[in-house]
Amino acid sequence: MHGSLPPTLRVLSFGASITAGFYRFGLAHHPYSIRLQERLQSILPSRNVEIDIDALSGDTVIQGTYFSRLGSRCLTKERDPYDWVIIQGGGNDLGVGHAPEQIYEELKKIWKIALDSGAKVMALTITETSDRTMRTRARYQALNGMIMAHREDGFYVADVCTAIPWPDTQGEQGRIWDDGLHFQALGYDMLGDAIGDRLIDILQKSQSAKI
To answer: What is the chain's percent helix, strand, coil content, to nearest 5?
Structure first.
């Protein structure tokens, strides 16, 4: 191998209420980063996996605080840079009526902040909701399609929407979803697994290429 890996893998989990692990009307939180850290640490036993969380419930990428929050995390010299920044954004923007194309243009600027800091970006698609109307689903599919189609050096996507589809039965919905938008703890663990599967695949392929 060409050189040794740094002792710590630094990851930032960035977004809004889904990133925070919001459920039970905000009385409880179970962020996906709990499961993700377990998964990453299991395949990197000789490294320390650190995952910071920066999540603000209700925040939007348009006229919200995504830019200022991410900038303060990625552009400061007061802490070591992140290796990976996992970003989910746009769901709240869809909820207040912003066009998918407009949201995507703002997401590109947000991703650039992380990329310019030297981190790799893992963008997440927008997870499902209980609103099954054709109009809402079309808007979600449009934005997720743009996220999935984006190409840039150091940029990757975890399609968590496809990984956790809306269940067919009410019983399964109740096990995974809390309020039709946010997950139960089980759902957040499933989200962590979906992100972990994608990130672990990338890390393993990267290591194989260096051998």
So the answer is: 50, 15, 35
